[in-house]
Amino acid sequence: MAPPKAAKGEYIETDTGNKISRRSQIHGTQHIILGGKTVIQAEAVIRGDLFRTTTLPPPTDPNNPSAPAASSPSTPSVAITVGRYSYISKSAILRPPSRLHRGIYSFYPLKIGDHVFVGEGAVVEAASLGNHVHVGKGAAIGSMAIIKDYAYVLDGAVVPPGMVVPSWCIVGGRPARIVGEVGEGYGVEGAEGGMARERYRVVGRP
Amino acid sequence: MSRPFPYTYISCPCADTPVPDPARKRRSRESTQKPPPEQANTDQDKKLSAKDEQEEEDEDEEHTFDPRSPRSNFSLYPPEQLLYCEECHQIKCPRCITEEIVSWYCPSCLFETPSSMVRSDGNRCGRNCFNCPVCTAPLAVTTIENATGNGPQQGPWVLSCGYCLWTTLDIGIKFDKPTNIRSQLQKMTDSTAPASFDRSRQASRSYGDLKHPLSSYASIDGQSNASERDGEQAASKEDPAAPPMGMDARFAALKNFYRTQIAETSNSANDRLSSEFGFSSPGALNRLMSLYTTSSRLSGLYGGNKKPKSKPPVMREALTASEGLLIASENNEADIIARLQSPECGWDGMASIDQRATQSPDVRFVDDLLPLPVLLRTKRAKRCKSCKHILVKPESKPQSTRFRIRLIALSYIPLPTLRPLALSSTSALPAMAPTSDLNSLPPLRPIHVLLTLKNHMFDPVRITLATPPVTPGRVATKVTVLSPQFEIGANSDVWDEALQGGSAPLTSESRSGAQRGVPEAGKVWDKGRNWTTVVLEVVPGTLPGSSAENGNGDADTETNDVDVSAIAASRQDEDVLEIPVFVHMDWDADAQLDQQNVGKGSKPDDKVTRELAYWMVLGVGRIQASL
């Protein structure tokens, strides 16, 4: 759990206590909301630039540069929301989900709750991750998947697109299936599932 | 799920029914005081004998918990999985509780299914939730992509898998509307197989779906029989739609048929019997009973003079398709074999065993696989097995994560967390890594681990820790708890904690090891409001057959490594360093019933001393094979 020793000054700490590695790649920062006390480790990729373009004329090219220009002044659409004490590990990728709807390929916001852990190298394209969700190392969460509170995604799992993982469930495998449930005490502060504050505190310490 | 190091497991006392006795343990702790000196100066070559001694000692000490014993597999749980019964004052593991279903819900659409519907839906979601029959991923309802326009999407709908890209088009199924797909599918699968002569089968009870040429005659018989039967007894058991070719429908027909058979056969003969003997139980039971009753009439019957008129009624088997009979077509098997051999089927065309396990038994090919409605899940309440006290009761709504009652062990027993101490125990060994690599602990080098116990009760707790001086098993690791007796302060309100801000146990980084000095025996390492940290000194033992045991660690490590690993593999996970720790805690609780948890009931008038004792296992790391 303990993150690797970082070089001094590796993390930028924002006013709300977010600790963001200088070596992370964050695109489209104006479309990302961090709830505070969130940790983003090195080489994590956060694609805030993939936000929803509310282009009304559908047959035109969605990459039309006029479209974002038209939408952004009115409503700065949010691509990624991250709650408090969430932890994005090294080389993880957060990507807003997308789908082809009525012939238009568009992105949808990605919401991440509080106390969420995203493991190393995981790829998250979910529509939402609830609170206290654990995404294991190397897991992939398919587009528009919904992971409810206290769900646990095992290392290396591939959650298929559109899957719903109910609360307290453990999913694993490729494609992911529900393989068990976490105990009732999961998520208690300091126990398994409740380590988010600890993780946050340790980050960036010499 | 195996956990990364360091981890802590707690042993539920249910594994050995006599609950661990603290008095007994104290004796063992006294006895453990003596062995360390003599073991400390054992030479390497005396190691074996020392180990033997140790083993004998362990046998005497039947209460020493051995994390390696096969039994302990069944008693060790991560702390968050354990519950606590306030009636029994005991830790309860998943093996000492019973469960009751609170609600059923579909894990995909998160809708609750009323318990009356669960049975009829076959424990599966009755809405639009399906799993891919090929890969089990959830299926999505999508339109066939001709509708790209803006208008309201029309056109046929299919179920498609986002993982393996299977769609119901592969088996030739389309849906007219995107809702209520399960009933649509049921209709289709029931009617597709018979090649569908008429759909108004409910009324007419057509039997045209039989494949066998003779069966039409049989079906006529059957029909007459059935009509007779219906006429006879004004059957209350109306057949559910007699098109029996669908698997489910055929099963239902057969079930129905046998039920009526039983009723008929027992009735025709047992009208008499039942009236005579006054039985009103089902026919099958009647007939069984009549075999064993020693009534004069029946004993006469079986005694010899068999009267033909009292011949027991004979049940017949299903004769017609309406009754659920399916006659295998003549070259059915040959057809299957031919299809297996055909180039377009091949290996990929065959359904795998996993796929067939969830389908109807005669499915053999991928083309026959049907989408599977999602199995329902349950929310369950948990009760103590011995006193029936309810321990966990979740809210019944599927979306809710809250509990009405949740008596988890973590609210009662201190939460253990383990952490290696980042400073090397002896400064003479500067080369020692900051022990962060718990997966390769060098043998015979002392390390220190910090054990933090955090109290969640609103009463201060006195703790006594005890470990066997040497861990059980072949790898003898020496363990010393530097301060085995200490107190943990009471937990206070959540608000206090929030206001005080980060005072949680592991934040003592500011007082790093250098400032705090070396760990001392008899001194608590660190202490907070409701937590206490103590130091364990651990000297990892050597793996049997490792080069470290021979004393020369450098030259022949390479060659030894092979057989070391071989030996290590021979006993699985022997290199895992797990320390059994006996925890004894006592505290003064309010005598009022079950007030410890609430804490608000501050009645200091009468206090009761409670105690609780259990074993826990600290998984420190993995011992390196060689120095």
From TrEMBL, chain A:
Q: Which SUPFAM superfamilies match?
A: Trimeric LpxA-like enzymes
Ranges of compositional bias, category Low complexity: 63-76
> Chief localization class?
cytoplasm
Would you tell me the protein name for this molecule? Dynactin subunit 5
Its Gene Ontology cellular component terms are:
dynactin complex
Classification lineage: Eukaryota, Fungi, Dikarya, Ascomycota, Pezizomycotina
Pfam families named in the record: DCTN5
The answer on whether this UniProt entry bears the keyword Cell membrane reads no
Which protein family is it in? Belongs to the dynactin subunits 5/6 family. Dynactin subunit 5 subfamily.
Where does this polypeptide localize?
Cytoplasm, Cytoskeleton
- Please give the CDD domains that the UniProt record associates with this protein: LbH_Dynactin_5
Instruction: Return the annotated region ranges for Disordered.
Output: 52-76
Alphabetically list the UniProt keywords: Cytoplasm, Cytoskeleton
TrEMBL record, chain B:
Keywords of this entry: Acetylation, Coiled coil, Cytoplasm, Cytoskeleton, Isopeptide bond, Phosphoprotein, Ubl conjugation
Q: Where in the cell is it found?
A: Cytoplasm, Cytoskeleton, Microtubule organizing center, Centrosome; Cytoplasm, Cytoskeleton, Stress fiber; Cytoplasm, Myofibril
Annotated Basic and acidic residues bias? 43-52, 227-240
Composition-biased stretches (Acidic residues): 53-63
What spans are recorded as compositionally biased (Polar residues)?
216-226
Q: Which GO terms describe its cellular component?
A: dynactin complex; stress fiber
UniProt region (Disordered), positions on chain: 1-73, 186-246, 500-519
Provide the assembly information. Subunit of dynactin, a multiprotein complex part of a tripartite complex with dynein and a adapter, such as BICDL1, BICD2 or HOOK3. The dynactin complex is built around ACTR1A/ACTB filament and consists of an actin-related filament composed of a shoulder domain, a pointed end and a barbed end. Its length is defined by its flexible shoulder domain. The soulder is composed of 2 DCTN1 subunits, 4 DCTN2 and 2 DCTN3. The 4 DCNT2 (via N-terminus) bind the ACTR1A filament and act as molecular rulers to determine the length. The pointed end is important for binding dynein-dynactin cargo adapters.
For this chain, the family text in UniProt reads: Belongs to the dynactin subunit 4 family.
Name the UniProt record assigns to this protein? Dynactin subunit 4
Q: What species does this protein belong to?
A: Penicillium roqueforti (strain FM164)
